[in-house]
């Protein structure tokens, strides 16, 4: 099981981000800082459907945010990126919330 800890966003230096591994390769950036990079019109119907997931998924998972940012920037994704995105979303849907008590 991965160790989880909080670290301050490297961009705004205000918000905390939950980091699940010390080996994270990309900068630790919070949802609020990346939100503007994910905005824009998606014209491809297949991509529009794929990215139509609950906002909480994007808040919880920086990988999902990065894939969407890459799509918004380059207007395309590789098949492995699409497969990994869908697998991550499916895994998040299967997880049951932990209740105290």
Topology:
Layout: E1 5-8, E2 16-19, H1 31-35, H2 45-50, H3 55-60, H4 62-74, H5 79-94
Antiparallel strand pairs: 1-2
Q: Helix/strand-derived class?
A: mainly alpha
Strand order of the largest sheet: 1-2
- How much helical structure, as a percent, in the residues? 40-55%
Distance between the termini: 22 Å
Largest sheet: 2 strands, antiparallel
- The string of secondary-structure elements, in order, is EEHHHHH
Integer-rounded radius of gyration: 14 Å
Mean pLDDT: 86
Tertiary shape: globular
Low-confidence stretches: none
Strand content: 5-15%
Number-wise, the strands total 2
Number of helices in the DSSP assignment: 5
Summarize the structure.
The chain is mainly alpha-helical and 101 residues long.
Explain this structure:
It is a single chain. The chain is mostly helical. It has a domain of 65 residues. 46% of the residues lie in helices and 8% in strands. The protein contains 5 helices and 2 strands, in the order ββααααα. A two-stranded antiparallel ribbon has the order 1-2. The two termini are 22 Å apart.
Describe this protein with a few key phrases:
101 residues; mainly alpha; 46% helix
């Amino acid at each position: 099981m991965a160790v989880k800890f909080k670290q301050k966003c490297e961009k705004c230096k205000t918000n905390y981000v939950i980091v699940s591994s010390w080996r994270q390769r990309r900068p630790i950036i919070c949802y609020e800082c990346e939100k503007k990079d994910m905005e824009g019109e998606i014209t491809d119907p297949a991509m529009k459907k794929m990215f139509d997931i609950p906002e909480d998924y994007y808040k919880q998972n920086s990988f999902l945010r990065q894939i969407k940012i890459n799509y918004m920037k380059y207007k395309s994704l590789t098949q492995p990126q699409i497969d990994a995105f869908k697998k991550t979303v499916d895994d998040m849907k299967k997880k049951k919330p932990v209740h105290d008590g």
